[in-house]
Amino acid sequence: MKIALIGYGTMGKAIEEIALQRGHEIVLKLTEENLHQKELITNADLAIEFTTPESAAANIKLCFDANIPVVVGSTGWYHHFEEIKLHCETQNKALFYATNFSLGVNIFFELNKTLASMMSKHPEYKASITEIHHTKKKDAPSGTAITLAEGLLAEHAGYRSFETNSPEHSAQILPITAIREADVPGTHSILYTSTVDQITITHEAFSRKGFALGAVLAAEFLIGKKGIFTMKHLLNQTI
């Protein structure tokens, strides 16, 4: 498969390494420095996009206009989702997006929902989320933290919304603490705290290789398909 990388930072380089190991070819590395070469994206079979929240939607449209399937790992662009969805569905394009491509994180998503359902029956435990990422990450909270919060809210009757880094919040607001530290690939924790103890579940990424492998697997999955896909579609095929 011929792959165009949109964004060639730390994640782009990790994806390149995994893609080459799996026998694929990188035909374009598109960055801010060579945007004048964006028309070369038509040489690819598929694009993998890891850039910024501000650039993601435009990059998706670039792929759609070139009739190139696109795997999107950028987060923080979801306020454009309905527009992108309409574009994808009406023009019969292909999009795979995820807040996190790690297999372990997606298992963690399901564990989070199961625990939230159990803890909904125990209001003496107050829930919270903490996420830690590298200082180059632009969006806060992370897309993964938002997915965790949405999963918790769907299963726990005690919470109706979430807030990030807010010093004060009502009892029905799920607090998220977003921390930025150097060289942290990603750590997410769900905490349930009472006056006598605390229950914590945590996913800690040791490197970006798990994210990169998931993105390449998503690319392999997307080839030949039309529509919008997520990690649930990929995991249902591989498990």
Question: What's the short story on this structure?
Answer:
The chain is an alpha/beta fold and 239 residues long. It has helices at residues 10-21, 56-65, 81-90, 103-119, 143-155, 209-222, 231-238, and strands spanning 2-6, 25-30, 46-49, 70-72, 94-97, 126-133, 161-164, 173-180, 187-193, 198-204, 227-229. The protein is elongated and about 60 Å long.
Primary descriptors:
239 residues, alpha/beta, Rossmann fold, Dihydrodipicolinate Reductase, domain 2, 2 domains, 6-stranded parallel sheet, 5-stranded mixed sheet, elongated
Would you mind describing this structure in some detail?
The chain is of the alpha/beta class and 239 residues long. The model has no long low-confidence stretch (mean pLDDT 94). The chain has two domains: 130 residues, NAD(P)-binding Rossmann-like Domain (Rossmann fold, 3-Layer(aba) Sandwich), CATH 3.40.50.720; 102 residues, Dihydrodipicolinate Reductase, domain 2 (2-Layer Sandwich), CATH 3.30.360. Helix 1 packs across helix 6, helix 2 runs parallel beside helix 3 and helix 4 runs parallel beside helix 5.
